[in-house]
Amino acid sequence: MPELLTSTAKEFALAELPHWTLSENGNAIERTFTFRSFARAFGFMASAAILAEKMNHHPTWTNTYNKVDVLLTTHDAGGLTELDFKLARKLDRLCEA
Amino acid sequence: MPELLTSTAKEFALAELPHWTLSENGNAIERTFTFRSFARAFGFMASAAILAEKMNHHPTWTNTYNKVDVLLTTHDAGGLTELDFKLARKLDRLCEA
Amino acid sequence: MPELLTSTAKEFALAELPHWTLSENGNAIERTFTFRSFARAFGFMASAAILAEKMNHHPTWTNTYNKVDVLLTTHDAGGLTELDFKLARKLDRLCEA
Amino acid sequence: MPELLTSTAKEFALAELPHWTLSENGNAIERTFTFRSFARAFGFMASAAILAEKMNHHPTWTNTYNKVDVLLTTHDAGGLTELDFKLARKLDRLCEA
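Output (structure tokens, whole complex):
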């Protein structure tokens, strides 16, 4: 099982992910992705779903029209691990050109 | 714009949708769909996304692994309209054999 | 039903779509989309599927890993109509930044 | 790399997959999946795409409206391996209730 990150490690990892914020309890990271249309939002989700399953690490995500709110945490570990930051970086990259 | 349904009309429509419940404020209906795997949950979402866009009526939905929580409301009308029940019936049908 | 386009109209429409070519028999247009990964190719397909169903005009498309070969024709009309070029433009736009 | 299957092994594996046929050159297996709608066909593809990427084994597949023609082969090995039959069984299972 992946190890829980220390507060310092979380801060360090978040510093490189300007679009993500720590949840109130410090156990998850969150980002809202906004797209030009529902079709584009769902295309992003389809790509992301494939990457998530491959990592065997799944988001909790909410979609309304052109917005996708993503929350990442490692349930088995009870908080944030390197897996969450790895998936966050992959999702960010999907939205770059 | 579709008309808001009366309380009686909502009750009548919900009686035919045993898996759905009225939200606390009465302005939305909700159902949790549970699947055997993340892959099946996302396949359902892909079919549902296509139907939703075709109706130009989109859910607010949250996915975590094999579960999909769907909330339907008609934002423009400020509550429940026939569109919500129409989409609910389409989503139910996707899960039948 | 949409009208078949004349040869002149096809040439005119294709001139604005540099990535698309006319099929040998002149009844379809074709483009291969290439992506950085399977996940991105499938994300494109998910967005495109939503747009296609909304137009009620569906591609014949083949995917292998990071490539998607799209063929557009209007079956009901027996050849190319404005619908094909409209969908082609929408698919092109999905791949822009 | 997975090993190429012998003719006997292929016949044995195909005997358990009544919906699949050997391609003419014996290097691939093929099945056409037919659905009630485009939305359902694409939902199947979304589930299948997730499973395929997880196996790191991808189909060559063609979709037209409610039909999906799937061809499976192991490119690296130059023919059929156990991976193809494993994915075929997974795809069949997606279509069961």
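Chain C has a mean pLDDT of 96.
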